[in-house]
Write a structure and sequence with these properties.
The protein contains eleven helices and twelve strands. The relative contact order is 0.14. The two termini are 19 Å apart. It is 31% helix and 15% strand. It is of the alpha/beta class. Helix 9 links the parallel strand 9 and strand 10. It folds into two domains: 139 residues, Rossmann fold, CATH 3.40.50; 179 residues, 3-Layer(aba) Sandwich (Rossmann fold), CATH 3.40.50.720. It has a seven-stranded parallel β-sheet with strand order 8-7-6-9-10-11-12. It is elongated.
Length: 348
């Protein structure tokens, strides 16, 4: 990567961002970077760390102002969601985009932006802790039978009971990147025996993991685990990695947690298993179609915990993404490889 010239570079904030974080970016190196933040041209956030915002319609004058911003941009904080496909044309000087999402591979492929010369960096690592928390919520929900507790509460019925508990359970985590490793550490603290599946074998076991499994051997090990946690990126290699044979191979009474992408698992096969009771329960943050259609049977299943692709979103998200961006600004000026740089070959 070539070192930028001494001329001041223009950073354009392309999605909703609190003023305090814009000010942090401005303060990093004001002699080297000019920060453009046209808040009135950006979408209005509906919740903390909403990077899409409510749909926006710009007037002709506002469109012209935004076009002028893009013409100046050397760096974008987030993707231009108004016209992402034409970013290379609309922003001819653009060299680098810091995305606010960890999984941008499918988006870059769909928009053909992966074929451009623009460098993309992701928010990988930012969402690991919140998603690990959601994973533990899902596992505890079913292993401590919160569904039964709610039923008894509604019935005003007091009766002692027993649950399997997490201690001593065996969980298989598919994907051992920053997210999968965070989940493994949490599970191990609860006394869970953690197996991990990844593309490459060898090397030291990640913290908390007691056995490594080749992703190509999932059919052999799925009958032996009490829960399956999907934490891998969605790529051509992982699409339908958990297809019908893998779903049907799961031990009866197993639990599924999906914090990956909906396309990693055969949703129809999973639904059948949940409806029949062969799969005890599922905690799902992602689905094949989002938003989840109102007529999808998942909504009405008592053994499904549904999160609207929000398990990763916490109040501190933007602060953590700006931490990565500022670190990368330093790397950019020094001509170093950027943190979380998107790898076209791997798809993440």
């Amino acid at each position: 990567m070539s070192v930028p010239t001494a001329d001041k570079l223009t950073i354009v904030i392309a999605s909703p961002l609190e003023t305090e974080f814009v000010d942090r970016i401005r303060a990093f190196d004001p002699d080297r970077f000019e920060v453009v933040h046209e808040e009135d041209l950006l979408a209005k956030p509906r919740y903390v760390a909403d990077h899409n915002g409510a749909p926006r319609t710009l007037t002709a004058d506002e469109q012209a102002r935004w076009a002028a911003c893009l013409q100046r941009a050397d760096i974008l904080f987030d993707i231009d969601r108004l016209d992402p496909i034409n970013m290379p044309t609309n922003a001819p000087k653009l060299r680098w985009v810091q995305a606010t999402s960890s999984g941008i591979g499918e988006f870059l492929k769909r928009t053909k932006l992966e074929d451009s010369d623009i460098i993309f960096t992701t928010a990988s690592g930012v969402h690991a802790r919140p998603l690990a928390e959601f994973t533990m919520l899902g596992l505890l929900y079913f292993f401590r039978d919160v569904q039964y507790l709610n039923q008894m509460k509604r019935a005003h019925h007091w009766e002692r009971y027993t649950t399997p508990g997490l201690d001593g359970a065996r969980v298989l985590i598919v994907g051992l990147g920053s997210l999968g490793r965070e989940v493994a550490r949490d599970c191990a603290r609860f006394g869970v025996e953690v197996w991990g599946a990844r593309r490459t074998q060898g090397g030291e076991l990640p913290e908390g993991v007691t056995r490594l499994v080749d992703q190509r051997q999932l059919l052999d090990v799925l009958p032996e685990v009490d829960a399956l946690v999907l934490a891998c990126p969605l790529t051509d290699e992982t699409r339908l990695l958990i297809d019908r044979p893998q779903v049907e191979a799961l031990k009866r009474g197993a639990v599924i947690v999906n914090i990956s992408r909906g396309g990693v698992i055969n949703e129809a096969a999973m639904l059948e298993g949940l409806q029949s009771g062969r799969i005890k329960g599922a905690a799902l943050d992602v689905f094949e179609v989002e938003p989840l259609p109102k007529d999808n049977p998942m909504w009405d299943l008592p053994n499904v915990l549904i999160s609207p692709h929000s398990a990763s979103t916490v109040a501190a998200e933007n602060s953590r993404i700006v931490d990565i961006f500022i670190d990368n600004l330093g790397r950019f000026t020094r001509g170093e490889k950027l943190r979380n740089q998107f790898d076209k070959a791997r798809g993440y």
